[in-house]
Amino acid sequence: MATGSAKIFATASNKLGSMACPLCQRRKSRRECPALGQSICAVCCGTKRLVEINCPETCVHLSAARANPPAMVRRQNEADLALLLPTIQKLTERQHQLFFLFQSVIARHRPGGFARLIDRDVAEAVASVAATLETAAKGLIYEHPAPTAVASALAAELSALIQQIRAEGATVYDREAAMALRAIEEGAQTIGGAAGAADAYLNLVGRLLQVNRAAESQGSGAPPSSIILP
Q1: What does the alpha-carbon distance between residue 99 and residue 94 come to, in Å, rounded to a whole number?
Q2: Fewest Cβ atoms closer than 10 Å to its Cβ: which of 183, 191, 205, 219?
Q3: Is 106:202 a contact under the CB 8 Å cutoff?
Q4: pTM of the model
């Protein structure tokens, strides 16, 4: 009898485990995600929407969020912008474009193995790329290495993005790209340190990217950027 009960318990546990969100592996899957073709939890749906998940316009959860953003979300966006503004207010329009382009790459980056990307990794990665660009602007070719493997991998992806943009015909000056990267470094150091969380800056920018992409998808009527966006 005890053996039968154990089998029933194991079966029930497996069923419950299969209901876990495939993204966070913690919360229960309650929302059908048309982009992923499977159910995810409400928290991952809300926080990863348009940031890590390429949501189609037909998604009912995306439409509902755009039509009726909660007051809490609006207050969070205002607070996020207030924290980020000191690090980007001196950037030019093109540097702003590069800033958010670099941020989109950072948001999509996934370290290898069991490593987790945190604010310190971001600060170290962008600092190494910025230093390399600043050195190149002086006429010297020297690649400044990042101190860790996680930061090095992210730095390589950011450097590859700059080369890709240039290969597609856009002009990106070393100094302007370096300034955008230094703004990211400052934000990762100050915002993350003040919040006391290892990924506070990453979470903040992820939320802002989600809002920005939602606005772009609705169409703003603005002229196209002079920077080619991959």
Answers
A1: 9
A2: 219
A3: yes
A4: 0.65
